[in-house]
Amino acid sequence: MPSRSESPQAADLSALLEGLCEARIEFIVVGGLAAVIQGAPVTTFDLDIVHRQTDENIQKLFKFLKSIDSYLRRPDDRIIEPTAEDLKAKGHLLVKTKYGPLDVLAFIEKGHGFEELIANSTEIDFHSYKVDGFVKSQAANARPSSAWA
Question: CA 102, CA 95: separation in Å to the nearest integer?
């Protein structure tokens, strides 16, 4: 079975985010990067997103994942590329890309998916893009937590 041992030296989360915007994918940034953007003193090495699970959006996301050489993060070196069916599922898809790790989530805690999260999100300017849905977190809390969205 072929393997991919080459990985980016450092994650380029900005390139991942810009690529998602250029591909016009509907997503919400959650996790560590959402906390960092809101001023939390944490470090993150990946990009976590919750994507809208419409057929059109899944196709855009699938095409984007192929364009950035994504493959599933696994404990072994087997190369398994994500499928459109993976993106339709209700779980988490953890991939490596040429820009670094990307976690594509159908939902976060309490089963909240894109539709539930978008109402409680904000919009920011990123380069020349409007990025919908950086989830409001408890940035005032001093403790880093996976509960931050």
Answer: 5
Instruction: Summarize the confidence of residues 35-58 as an average pLDDT.
Output: 90
Q: Percentage of the chain with pLDDT > 90? A: 56
The Cα 82–Cα 140 span in angstroms is: 36
Report the SS3 class of residue 62. Answer: helix
Q: What CA–CA distance (Å, rounded) separates 139 from 149?
A: 10
| Strand ranges in the chain using DSSP code E only, listed in sequence order | 27-30, 47-51, 71-72, 92-96, 102-105, 121-126, 129-135
Model-wide pTM > 0.85: no
Find where tokens 């920011």 sit.
124
As a whole number, the mean pLDDT across the chain is 82
Which phi and psi (to 5°) does residue 74 adopt? -140, 160
Which residue, chain included where needed, has tokens 């988490």? Answer: 92
Question: In b/e form, how buried is each residue of 106-124, taking b as 16+ CB within 10 angstroms?
Answer: bbbeeebbbeebbeebeee
Task: Name the nearest CA neighbour of 126 among 21, 11, 12.
Answer: 21
Give, in degrees to the nearest 5, the angle at Cα 11 between 54 and 116.
30
Q: How do the domains of the chain map onto residue ranges? A: 31-135
